[in-house]
Specification:
The structure is a homodimer of 431-residue chains. Chain A is α/β, with parallel strands linked by helices and 431 residues long. Helix content of chain A is 41%, strand content 14%. In chain A, strands 4, 5, 6, 7, 8, 9, 10, 11 and 12 form a nine-stranded mixed beta sheet that branches. Chain A has a three-stranded antiparallel beta sheet with strand order 1-2-3. In chain A, helix 7 crosses helix 14. Chain A is globular and about 60 Å long. At the A-B interface, helix 1, helix 4, helix 11, helix 12 and helix 13 of A face helix 1, helix 4, helix 11, helix 12 and helix 13 of B.
Chain lengths: 431, 431
């Protein structure tokens, strides 16, 4: 029996788009003109509690993404909020929906949005931020949230339990430290391809002044431009400052090795998305070809099965989870556990719309209850669109301030949703 | 300038579903109750020529798939039918839509449907079946249809040209032979999990009587059932008859090796989809663990990049293309070329709704212009739903009869579309 107040009675979706292409914010080698968008979902319980979630897209197709979320309505309505594990499995394993993936692309991102909304709802009911709600679970409860299908050659439930039990030690101390000090961030704001050298220089300086311990530059459109921009950033930041670069899947294997070779004198902290996110063996060949330059990927990796292989193949030195592409919190827990098992640090992808807001909770949970460490770990930060959220991320001296508000920090202001609704919202009416 | 009659002026979509779950047709270990469905698209030119295409799904979510096809309308309207290569690239490389994949899942299947409809249209205009239209192209024209991005570590345009030029020799002879003899087929009709032993025995006998040279059984739900059913089929078909088995992604790596080990005494011709279609390294480990039992996969492989890796890793002995999951004819040409480069025979997945109709053209093109051989090659055949097509496949003595009608054999009868439209069609009204 579902207790009063725990039954989901309504699902509402919104196609929300921000016209970011007008200013070249977010421009990179593969995404020259994104309009950062959210296929947004609100779940409501019988006593009016709300859970908010979304899939992030970059414009066209956000209507399809929103329709995919709506298709999940029959799975959610009438269900118990506490029944999250079973509900997650019901959506992922539905034999008919599964054909549309399995576990990838539009349908999987839709599940992600709904699962994250369920976590927002559950955390609000418990009066806790998601990172804390997760961190206070027992190892057994956490393992119960994970779908181990297709993982057992790399991670069994028993091995996951071992990892989580080891992290029980010092948990309270890490929670206290997190509350006092926050979590380290890096910024991509200086590095978008559409910016000129003066703007790059100015933004690098600002990043240093603001206390960030790392920045990232987009590369991959033109090698000479990349060399010039990297040397500008290196000059401003100094020889020892970590500067990562991000090719956004621009290269084939051989061209990646060649291009990275031409940039290695600038000492990239990591090279992100050198090629297709589907190409495990390609990433492994690139890592081998540019060693010891570290390779990173993950924002477009479709699910835990591909992450498993990237780790098995020794293809990546940093694993970059995304909060809203794989099957939400539940699948990301599997990925955090895989990374811990292979000893690879997780440095999440963020930016977009609300991705910083969501993913901070996962990194903080990783620190408290999984890896137990922030060494070599940073969460991406991009300084835009936070004003649309009710409890936006707060950055202080280059660190994410640990959220205290109940929920997943996922809720957008109703006025923001209304103004940016596509195509009827006021922002789009004149376009 | 687009010549009159070559400009696309209309796109129309239909959510078409067949209630196949009522009879357990198509039941397997992962798909117990599919309702075979088509997200169907019709493109019309300014002089009324029509191209038909579809994405195949198994029921729920077919509305999302149909919406994804509709989202491609702006890319197609006003375009020239002859401009197919550029149009394909525009859809696949659209920087905003790309975020929804890239090149996988619902959005990629939508592109597949549109691309295949364009080929249907083009072939009808030329008055030729698609297999012949493709076979008569020059190697340079064929290579011009392929997107080599992310393939160059396994297949370059020059290597593709070499393969195609080698196959120029004897092309006319193979066309003649194909017209006279057709292409070998195997049947899955006896092997669905939902059937009892008597029905299995009867259908095995029928398959032999009908001249099929291979059958396939679904396995993976219960080992003792599998052993019993396999022994029934072996008894009916005899010790040397090729019987493939298909687990539909049911296993993890270790359980696959164990389960296959328990069935190898029945001499499986291949083991299909032992695990997740995303798990290249898993397939390689299984192939290694059960050698020399051949592993096959492909119907759920999302794109050419994953096929590339399956071949690079030596994970499969048979490659199973699907006509409507990857980016349509164009991406399937890339996959046929990859298979030829690695010397792996292509044995397509078919069945569903209209998949036999489409994929026969690709295997016939493979025979005439790519691999030049039918050795070890068979196209799957399932005997249902063909009556809904205007030019259904014809099977004669266990072989696909080579199609002669112009187009891609993709067109459904208007009455079938109307009766099975979901949820308003007469078949669904009473459900």
């Amino acid at each position: 029996m579902t207790a009063p107040g725990y039954r989901i009675v309504r699902m509402e979706t919104h196609d929300v788009r921000f016209p970011t292409s007008r200013d070249l914010d977010g421009s990179d080698a593969m995404n020259p003109d994104p309009d950062y968008s959210a296929a947004y979902v609100v779940l409501t319980t019988d006593d009016g509690f709300e859970g908010h979630g979304f899939a992030f897209t970059i414009g066209r197709g956000n209507d399809v993404q929103t329709a995919a979320i709506s298709a999940l309505e029959p799975y959610v309505i009438g269900r118990d909020v506490e029944d999250l594990g079973a509900l997650y499995k019901d959506m992922v394993d539905d034999s008919q929906l599964r054909w549309l993936g399995p576990e990838k692309g539009v349908m999987h991102m839709a599940i992600s949005a709904v699962v994250n909304a369920l976590w927002d709802l559950r955390a609000k009911r418990e009066g806790k931020p998601v990172w804390l709600l997760l961190s206070e679970m027992t190892p057994e409860q956490i393992v119960g949230l994970v779908d181990f299908r297709y993982l057992s050659d790399a991670l069994t439930p028993e091995q996951a339990l071992d990892i989580l039990r080891r992290a029980e030690d010092g948990k309270q101390e890490r929670i206290s430290r997190l509350r006092a000090e926050g979590y380290p961030a890096y910024t991509t704001s200086p590095g978008w391809l559409g910016y000129d050298d003066d703007k790059l220089r100015r933004l690098c300086k600002e990043a240093l002044d603001e206390g960030f311990g790392q920045i990232k530059l987009k590369v991959g459109a033109d090698l000479e431009d990349d060399r010039r921009r990297f040397s500008v950033a290196r000059e401003v930041c100094g020889p020892d400052f970590p500067i990562a670069i991000d090719a956004n899947q621009r290269w084939d294997v051989a061209s990646a090795i060649e291009w990275i070779g031409a940039l290695r004198e600038f000492d990239p902290h990591w090279v992100e998305e050198p090629t297709s996110p589907d190409d495990v063996l390609g990433h492994a060949a690139i890592a081998e070809g540019v060693r010891p330059v570290p390779i990173a990927t993950g924002e477009h990796v479709q699910n835990r099965i591909v992450f498993k292989q990237l780790l098995q193949a020794g293809a990546i030195s940093y694993l970059q989870i995304d909060s809203a592409r794989v099957g939400g919190v539940n699948e990301n827990i599997a990925i955090l556990l895989l990374a811990a098992r292979f000893g690879i640090p997780v440095c999440p992808h963020a930016g977009g719309v609300g991705l910083c807001e969501l993913v901070q909770h996962l990194s903080m949970f990783d620190y408290v209850a999984v890896s137990g460490s922030t060494d070599g770990r940073v969460i991406e930060y991009v300084d835009h669109l936070h004003e649309h959220f009710v409890t936006p991320v707060v950055i202080d001296n280059g660190r994410y301030v640990t959220p205290t508000a109940p929920g997943f920090s996922a809720e957008m202001h109703p006025e923001s949703i209304a103004a940016h609704s596509f195509p009827g919202g006021e922002v789009w009416k004149d376009a």
